[in-house]
Prior knowledge:
Elements: E1 9-14, E2 21-26, H1 27-34, H2 50-53, E3 64-66, E4 79-82, E5 85-92, E6 123-124, E7 129-130, E8 140-144, E9 150-152, E10 173-174, E11 176-177, E12 200-209, E13 213-215, E14 219-227, E15 238-243, E16 246-254, E17 258-259, E18 265-271, E19 280-286, E20 293-303, E21 306-318, E22 336-340, E23 351-357, E24 363-369, E25 381-384, H3 387-403, H4 409-423, H5 427-442, E26 449-454, H6 474-479, H7 492-495, E27 497-502, E28 521-524, E29 527-531, H8 543-556, E30 559-562, H9 565-572, E31 577-578, E32 581-582, E33 587-591, E34 594-595, E35 605-607, E36 613-614, H10 616-620, H11 624-628, E37 631-634, E38 643-645, E39 648-650, H12 652-659, E40 663-667, H13 673-689, H14 694-702, E41 720-723, E42 729-732
Parallel strand pairs: 1-9, 3-4, 13-21, 23-26, 26-27, 28-42, 29-30, 29-33, 33-37, 37-40
Antiparallel strand pairs: 1-2, 4-5, 5-8, 6-7, 10-11, 12-14, 12-15, 14-19, 16-18, 16-20, 17-19, 20-21, 21-22, 23-24, 24-25, 31-32, 34-35, 35-36, 38-39, 40-41
Amino acid sequence: MASLPGAAYVVVVDRGQSPPRYVSIQVGLLRNALKGVADRDAADPPPGTLRDEVDLGSRAAARVVDILASDESPAPGSVVVQGRTVLGVAVSEGTSRGVPARPTPAVAVPPPSYTSNLPGGVIGTGAGFQLGPDALPVGIEWLPVPSAPQVDADLPAAEPEVDAAPGTESGTESGTESGTESGTESGTESGTESESPTGRRFRAFPDVKGPATVSSGSEFVVDVGFARQAPSAGSTPVIKPDAPETVAFDLQVDGFGFTFPAGVRQVLTVVRDDPGSHRVEFRVVAEVSESPVDRTVEVTFSLDGAVVGLAWVDLTVVPGDPQVVASVPDPEGSARVGGSAIGTAETPADLTVTIRTTQGLPEVRWQFQTPHPVELPDQQVTTSLPAAGAQAFAEQLMAQLPALKGTSMIDNALRGLGGRVAGAMPVEFWRILAAVWKLVEAQGSAVPSLMLITDEPYVPWELAWMDGDRQVPSHFVSMTPGTGGERGNQQLGAAWSIGRWLLPKEQPIGPDRPPSPPAVRMDADTMAVVVGNYDKTGIPALPAALEEAKDLASTYRALEVDVDEEHVMQLLNNRLVKDDKPFVPSIVHMAVHGKVGLSAQQYTGIVLRDKRVVDPHVIEGSALGSAAEPFVFLNACQVGQASTVLNSYGGLASAFLTSGARGFVAPLWNVDDDVAKQLSLDFYRAVLAEGVTVGEAVRRIRNRFLADPGAAPTATPMAYVFYGHPHLTLSWS
């Protein structure tokens, strides 16, 4: 904090109340409040917490504006947050008192592929953020908070450490200038708008227009573009800071029960300051239907290989004579439309694949996006996957692989099962994968990243086996780092860093669920670990799980939670207490027993000491996700396996993600107690201590399969699946 100017702000988070209080304090005032704490004699009373030393209870809480939940412009003094992450403080420019405001310095500009769904033109960078020219009313600017933006009120009252923002020489700059020592803030001139160094902000809503009713077998047109106003209550805008005068979006149309005779891809180029300046049309043919049926045409918006928006039009297909609709009808006759943010808005994966299904139908539809110059298909890509067959395959995985522990057959079984998975993927997937892999290799990166956005719950695509010169060129497989086994681990998930995410579902009010885009970074400073102590219960003991919990408690100061109803419900309802103060975990780890019933949610969940099961419905109804937005690691048997409930993605992964969790790791089948313990400890060491991304850490886990020729063969390392952005990092403090 010593390097920060006195006019900069520190946000103190008081978690002694629920919800937490956010108090913004200028650095100069905080220094004065803490003056002399470090110089106290041994005979003096020891320093209290930061709460005590700055008399936090007497300070007014700041108004909090969450940019994910509100489009309002924050008033001066408001603390601006994105979920649990503090972005900064809104301050009034005011007038300089004898000290001229310094000119706005050149700010760090995100890479061209960076887009965001944040309202108001504010772009979070982890260290600070910058403005678009029309982001806020005149006279208001953002005061960025450096890379340690929030301080817990219950820390010891030594001067809080606040590091300089990455890429700056001191803490005085973090995206924009923090201000002058006199308390005036640099930035825009009063009464005028600032120009960003490279351009102005683009902000508009994805928009699709189409007829409300079409005849079976007829051809019609959907009209696609951008709108200034939200097309539906839950719509969120696409925002690109520092946009050039024209912005080119890649559009891809899709929909069950439709064909697209002129192709599924088009480029939409719009004028930055007039987003509605240009629109494109897709020709659509409704497949024959003998009775009225409601269907949806969806359009995905991509920018620089990142999926940044989704818009759709709901319409009814009715029996009748085929006809051609030459143009879109008047708005009064148009169908219900909507739009949402989705996918990878900040740092796109090397390849993003969207996999869509409709319950009861065997058709699987595939879409592809990449920031690399790779030719993508212009026609629909579909495969057939009967739901009953996919569920049976998942059940076979859960039963067969654990039963082969210690046998030489386990390697062959995984290869055979992986071959089945690879065969269910379209040829286009493998061609695109190989083309992207080649370009990533040429750039000097050995491990590419893959984002799977899917509503298909059963198939573990990560286990797809890659035969050299069959699915991909053989040298790709041989160059994959860290592979184990006599013949090498050629699973897709052992070669690529992979993260899954769920297709968001529209909500009547508020943002879609699960929250999109998935987080790319999150601050983590607290951990709770549920301890699987089943002693004297008739449930098999988990001695290694007990050691696992103790190690996490010792290394990361994790709060241990007993696996009984009272304590687990305290965790889920955000009522944990540590040292007589509310405790909100940013990481939740469970070393317990789990079980899965693919066709019955009540048999899926976390097993308690009394043999009751905490099922997905209990988790969906809990407060933990919305209050803490945690990263969740369930080191419990089978609980990574998904299912379907009321035509939606089910299971524990869906329950945690839709309730607000920002990442989820769990195994697909029964895992060995001792192996699972070591894998989880190594995972946290890599992610929290070494700064490895979660996707890469899970890839390394998979590569432990058969890596030790002296150990009994086990499929446990291959069991883990990760839901989240493959580039997700957890910043531990």
